[in-house]
Specification:
The chain is of the alpha/beta class. The chain has one domain (about 5-195): Rossmann fold. The chain has helices at about 35-45, 85-90, 95-100, 120-135, 150-165, 185-195, and strands at about 5-10, 25-30, 60-65, 70-75, 105-115, 135-140, 170-175. It has a 7-stranded mixed β-sheet with strand order 1-3-4-2-5-6-7, with helices on both faces. Strand 3 and strand 4 form a beta hairpin. It is globular. The protein binds guanosine-5'-diphosphate. Guanosine-5'-diphosphate (GDP) binds near residues 34, 35, 36, 37 and 145.
């Protein structure tokens, strides 16, 4: 998919404030500092569309970007940054849960995982919740330039084996490095496919959630 235009549309503090539109949406979520803003900037080809961590954890809103006037990229607040209050830190926000469960436009969610880290409790808890709700997602491992191919492969395998405790089905996986521009065509390809099929988990009756 060629990105012709990418523009900021709106920020919303809760589901009721989300823009009314019939454009299909793809959401991006992950722990603060996972590289979400960098991915959004890489995908859209704009350096500053999403802000790269000045103050991680500060972005507490759902941000909507319109792509090619046809679909929306949704930047969800990062979870789990140590500097936010304890109450905020323990779980992703209720309004994010509300958005993920009840937004009719949402096709699926890219859950970003830092490939340098061992499986994080907070990521696994979030994914367990997604699986429990039957919400479709793709695991997107970030910052692969920071480790060797074999170390990245091992890290992903470790994460996926832990995932078996929360999901019977093998998750769909993509890898990326915003620094090297890797993963862009695969992510956009998956979105193009999902737009055509109206689901993030195409396949013969298979669901990744
Ligand atoms: P966010 O908090 O999830 O939006 O994360 P950011 O996109 O702001 O990135 C957090 C930090 O990780 C920043 O210092 C980025 O420069 C760095 N970063 C993000 N993506 C990559 C990547 O693919 N490779 C490397 N080496 N660093 C990255």
């Amino acid at each position: 998919m060629k990105i012709r235009t990418a523009t900021f549309e709106a920020s919303a503090p809760d589901l009721a404030s989300c823009p009314t539109s019939d454009r299909l949406e793809f959401a991006f979520i992950g722990r603060s500092n996972v590289g979400k803003s960098s991915i959004i900037n890489m995908l859209t080809g704009q350096k500053d569309l999403a802000k790269v961590s000045g103050t991680p954890g500060k972005t507490r809103l759902i941000n909507f970007f319109t792509i090619n006037n046809t679909w929306s990229l949704v930047d969800l607040p990062g979870y789990g940054y140590a500097k936010v209050g304890r109450k905020d830190r323990s779980k992703f926000s209720a309004f994010v849960a509300d958005y993920l469960q009840n937004r009719p436009n949402l096709v699926g969610t890219f859950v970003l995982i830092d490939s340098r880290l061992p499986p994080q409790k907070m990521d696994l808890e979030f994914l367990s919740w997604m699986v429990g709700c039957g919400l479709p997602f793709v695991l997107l491992f970030t910052k692969t330039d920071k480790l060797s191919d074999s170390a990245a492969k091992k890290s992903i395998e470790t994460f996926v084996s832990q995932m078996q405790e929360v999901s019977e089905e093998a998750p769909e996986i993509l890898t990326s490095s915003s620094k090297l521009g890797e993963g862009r065509s695969e992510i956009l390809g998956l979105i193009a496919e999902a737009l055509a099929e109206d689901t993030l988990a195409p396949g013969e009756g298979e669901s990744i959630a």
